[in-house]
Amino acid sequence: MKWSFTCQHKQILSHRPNGGRNRERTKQEREMGVGEGKLPLFETRVRKGRTLYQLYALSVLLSICMILAYRALHIPADGEKGRWAWIGLSMAEIWFGFYWILTQSLRWNLVYHHTFKDRLSTRYKNNFPGVDIFVCTADPKIEPPIMVINTVLSVMAYEYPTEKLSVYLSDDGGSDITFYALLEASRFAKAWIPFCKKYKIEPRSPGAYFKEASSGPDDGLREWLDIKRLYEEMENNINSVANSGVVNNDIRKQHKGFSEWSGTATPRDHQPIVKILIDGRDGARDFEGNVLPTLVYMAREKKLHRHHNFKAGAMNSLLRVSSEISNGALILNVDCDMYSNNSETIKDALCFFMDEEKGHEVAFIQLPQHFNNVTKNDLYGNSILAISEIDFHGLDGYGGPLYVGSGCYHRRESLLGKKYDQTHKLELVARERDYKSTSLDLEERAKNLITCTFEDNTQWGNEVCVSHSFSVYPFFSLVQGHLGRKKKQIPMFNLSIMNKQQKNALKG
């Protein structure tokens, strides 16, 4: 699955050194989000050729009306042969004509968003907010651990200050096999992340990269071979344990975290588990001496007699645990069967959230989902291309598409019940982390936040965070406090596919 999330760098307005601050902003500038003396970090464009398409649509509508008029004026008389066939065809044409009209609402006003990451970097330097990334998995038999850790490694390698990046893996199956896979990934990351950033590797899922790349960069072929060997060793180790279904005692001795599985825990009945495998606060370094992102394993408590609310419940638990450990201002949630295919997507999202004029109006940034095995021209009639490249862009023209439950950036405050206020512009600022507490202290406090009883008699899942009302995977609803009370906040979807070199963001 891949998510398109691209940008086109084009300066629309020229900045005037003298007099620019004092002049009144034009309507176009206000709509584009231009503050006083500052160029916008993003722009919204209407699809080219919209007028021609609207003329075409009107001609089709006229043709439909003429066909229906002909049907109505030439209905066979009672008893005449073919009367009921004529009526049946007329009803079918009425239905398909009505359906066509409905679809035109999604094609009438397609809009595309473009970001200016160069302006973002120039304006804010390295003063970016913390970002917490949530990856959800549930069953190591259905979702192979090697696939899960490829997702984790791809988001750990984002082009973003690593000290401000934290990755959380929610394991609803509470499996020691998944924990072992993440432990292996934490070791491999020390070599993989600096390799990606040194040679600008894309995609940054090692499995996908080595599948596509037959050889490495000319100036780093030896290093490429070493990294590939390390990945194959890790892959073999993880697959061997996953196939056997047992983590042997020799492996359990490698990390004290395996002691959590010493009892009779099952996927449906186990205690809360939180383990910080990489603590970004204590200066954990990769092989090049750079700070590593924080990496956390979480398995919320489950009991047979308690409803766990599926993915919505996992998201709520992740929000509470991450608030205790890293407390990033921005949150990205992804599924475990996806991988990052564009390492710049966080900065793309920040161009919306951090825009001085319009950023406070954005509810969330959502990336469309595509799949690897869909042909370029969609020969087999898979509707996913039409949905992501047309329908959602059309909905964006009316204020934004539906929230599909994955591949989405949110402000933490919006998920925690903060109300939208036109007069208040919420700034995304770096938050102070708890540097005094040890990792063990943070783990113990976080465990108390993911017990079965924590949400009892609270507004979690009702007025705060992700709603428990919709449990159909993967679609789930944001609570009324996030969208229902923010009528003027705009969900932004899909930075348009215009720069062919950067058209993918996530695959799976």
Summarize the helices and strands and which ones pair or pack.
Blueprint: H1 27-32, E1 42-46, H2 50-73, H3 83-104, E2 111-115, H4 117-124, E3 131-137, H5 145-156, E4 165-171, H6 176-199, H7 206-212, H8 221-244, H9 249-252, E5 273-278, E6 294-299, H10 310-325, E7 330-335, E8 339-340, H11 345-353, E9 362-366, H12 384-396, E10 408-411, H13 412-415, H14 439-447, E11 490-493, E12 506-507
Parallel strand pairs: 3-4, 3-7, 4-6, 9-11
Antiparallel strand pairs: 1-2, 5-6, 7-10, 8-12, 9-10
Helix pairs in contact: 2-3, 5-6, 6-8, 10-14
Explain what the structure shows.
It contains 14 helices and 12 strands. The longest helix is centred in the first third of the chain and has 24 residues, at 50-73. It folds into 2 domains: 50-104; 117-507, Spore Coat Polysaccharide Biosynthesis Protein SpsA, Chain A. Residues 1-36, 470-490 and 492-504 have low confidence and may be disordered. It is an alpha/beta fold.
